[in-house]
Amino acid sequence: MLQIQNYLNGQLVPPLTSRYLDNVEPATGQVYGLIPDSGPDDVAAAVAAAEAALPAWRALSAEDRGRLLVRIADLIDANLERLAEAESRDNGKPLSLARVMDIPRAASNFHFFGTAAGHFATEAHVQDGVAVNYTVRHPVGVVGCISPWNLPLYLFTWKIAPALAVGCCVVAKPSEITPATAFLLSELCIEAGLPAGVLNIIHGNGPNCGQAIVEHPGIKAISFTGGTATGRHLARTAAPMFKKLSLELGGKNPNIIFADCDLATAVRTSIRSSFANQGQICLCGSRLFIERPIYEQFKAEFLQQLAEQRVGDPQEASTTQGALVSEAHLHKVLAYIELAKEEGGRLLAGGQRVQVPGRCAEGYFLAPTVFENLPFDCRTNQEEIFGPVVTLTPFDTEEEVLSMANSTDYGLSATLWTRDIQRAHRVAHALHSGIVWINTWLHRDLRTPFGGMKNSGVGREGGLEALRFFTEAQNVCVKL
Ligand SMILES: NC(=O)C1=CN([C@@H]2O[C@H](COP(=O)(O)OP(=O)(O)OC[C@H]3O[C@@H](n4cnc5c(N)ncnc54)[C@H](O)[C@@H]3O)[C@@H](O)[C@H]2O)C=CC1
Ligand SMILES: O=C(O)/C=C/C=C(\O)C(=O)O
Questions:
Q1: Among 25, 85, 87, 248, which one carries the catalytic annotation?
Q2: Do residues 307 and 368 lie in contact, with contact meaning Cβ atoms separated by under 8 Å?
Q3: How far, in Å, from the CA of 59 to the mean position of ligand 2?
Q4: What pLDDT sits at residue 374?
Q5: How many CA atoms lie within 13 A of 62 on its CB side?
Q6: Cβ atoms within 10 Å of 248's Cβ, excluding its own
Q7: What is the ipTM of this complex?
Q8: End-to-end Cα distance, the chain
Q9: pTM surpassing 0.80?
Q10: Separation between Cα atoms, residue 394 and residue 392, nearest integer Å
Q11: Which residues contact 112 (CB under 8 A, 6 or more apart)?
């Protein structure tokens, strides 16, 4: 049985609470490990360790800090197979996906921010020969990073790496549902020689452990990715303490397909943007809007390619759809499928739990599900389902599709498919989304601002935005 430990002040230690939570393998429904059920005392010890480590860590040159981060990136690369297996087992995602997406991206996060810190220049403003102002960016101090279960190591490292790069020390909590790769990362940090206390990984649930991180007065900034309701609660706690907040929350993203698109590429990519990671990516396009002249053709080709998806044991090479992350999440998604039927949706594919024979008989598998005939403003089309469930809706005009696409409380990402370059830019600029992909999906450049509008979040991650978030700007004015 895998028994996970906290990474506190450079050591792997049991929680001060002495309590543990079960860790369940979603593909089998069986408990396969234990994770610390840490509480406020564990968090306080982590903050104390981080505060003690801070002066030496921030005094290191960006190059020296970067060298350590790149060493961690190299160790992630060297342990790719072990990490991918752990991620797949913990989350239910296909091993093949963890191998090519989650773990390589975790290494890229450390590599990118390890090298980026050396390019992080300060600004200067000269006032007509009268004065010069220059901006110093100091590390914020000890920061909290709280991450979700859908892309566990990928999102955990996306927060930790920029914080460490600029000289902050970190108290981090991975999701209690998928703690395994964060634990393996703590072993790699020890192997890399990361100084004690610079990064502390405390495991536990949201209300006890996450809440204690948000409430602790020693934590100066919080970077959070997760559900919108949790983000709202977190903001309510942190705002009166004037903590800096970066919130990456939910999405209900439109995928707009115009009749002049490259249909084959649009269909193939839309299968991925609908169902990758069992639809459990905040960037998945769950509302497909198709221009009426190609609606039937798109639908037929989409359903034909969907039939080639294989729901099965995440460890098998042929599997494209693994298990949903938990029994509770499976039931949440199944409840939305019932709601879609009640709202008048016509079921075109899926809609039911899948029984995978053998070791996965008790796993949380769901057939990729497609509905049509639902109004754009029904709950199915407005609320985040965060699973392999999409809707198809025809449209006639650009104006109509924009009003449907922008109708939700979310504004994270959007995809549009067209060969008309002017329309592509016009529609992109009119979409209320922090991220717009034209003729592609999840094409990432780590330098770009990443985040959402409306209820999809506050602030931006990525590139300079992340480096700025984890620093305090101080202006120094010198009279010439
Ligand atoms: N990136 C995204 O957009 C994600 C969206 N979701 C959405 O959120 C829904 C709920 O999923 P959950 O697993 O419950 O996500 P969640 O938002 O509750 O969990 C994310 C992280 O926040 C922590 N957390 C929970 N309560 C907290 C608190 N009071 N203070 C500090 N940290 C806290 C959790 O332990 C976890 O590490 C999902 O069904 C999905 O719709 C979930 C995960 C990722
Ligand atoms: O940074 C990325 O490429 C992806 C981020 C995805 C999320 O934040 C999410 O699914 O929660």
A1: 248
A2: no
A3: 31
A4: 98
A5: 17
A6: 27
A7: 0.96
A8: 67
A9: yes
A10: 7
A11: 161, 446
